[in-house]
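Anyone opening a protein record will find just a pair of labelled lines. With that in mind, the following record should read easily:
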Amino acid sequence: MKPTELIRSGWWVLLAAVAVSIAVVVVFIRMPGQPAISQGAGAIALEPCLIDRGTLVQAMARDGLRALVLPETMTPDEVDSSNRNERGKLLVPTDVVIGIEITGEARAYPLRLLTWHEAVNDVVGGRAVAVTYSPLSGGVAVWDRVLDGDEIVLAVSGWLDNSNTLLYDRRGADATSSLWNQLTGEAVTGPAAGRKLTPLPIELSTWAEWRRNHPGTTVMAPDAGSKPLYKRDPYHSYRGSDILRFPVEPKAPGGDLALKDLVAVVTHSGRDTVFALPYLEFAVGENPGTWAALLGEDVFLIDYDAELGTFAIAPRDDGVAAPPVRFAYWFEWYSLHPEAKPLP
């Protein structure tokens, strides 16, 4: 199965997997005058609200999935040793990973693990980052999590907007948190409303390809308390269809792209360019290949393997910075930017 198919997933199936006997009540926020919700320490502010309340829903309790902070890491040799010594495989060559490299330090984050956390707060190459994944929307993004000189910690709020994960910034018991859109990096409610985090360059790869190209890499180690979950695949039904389980407006029209086809969003010179991976697959043919793209005045080379579903982009010329990249299902990006015209 291709990685682009593997990352099609959704919270509604997760809820069924972890609480089959519990009826999940979806709460639509339509009630005026509800300034905040509070669960445990601190509260999450819902005012001001910069998004349409009609697509804002609560799908689970706050911290229903455990976000990680500074997780342990493993070397490729340690992964191989674990695969030999433990039942089951920690990582197999075809497992999909988010790969990042900052000032020479490379690290991989397996989507199979991120499925059960959705936010990992880490430090790579001396930079504080938030590695985020929204299975329901296909959203993959890595953010610089420094805001006003302080490192923020992002965790799972339990709320969705247009089927995309909303994270919250953890604060003390006397402070109020904001909700942050996982895919745009923007705070959409609360005291930080309108503030934006900076996206970072990433690759979508397989473990085999990433470690081959980055032999000195480390990889996020499994969270000890979550190991039983990692063996489960709670999203099979969702990724196998174009059915959406939560409100999405506007909804992408029918056409060449299916709702859950994956797109890569490349940001350069303040402009987002959307590459539809099915189109890119047609452009490069059945064999792995490199496709040249002109973004602004600069040429970038896209390495795309249609069989593996790996995607990486780099500037052709020295002196041009690597561009930030995000991934999402087509329906999710369209809901944010209905004017978008995917390439190539």
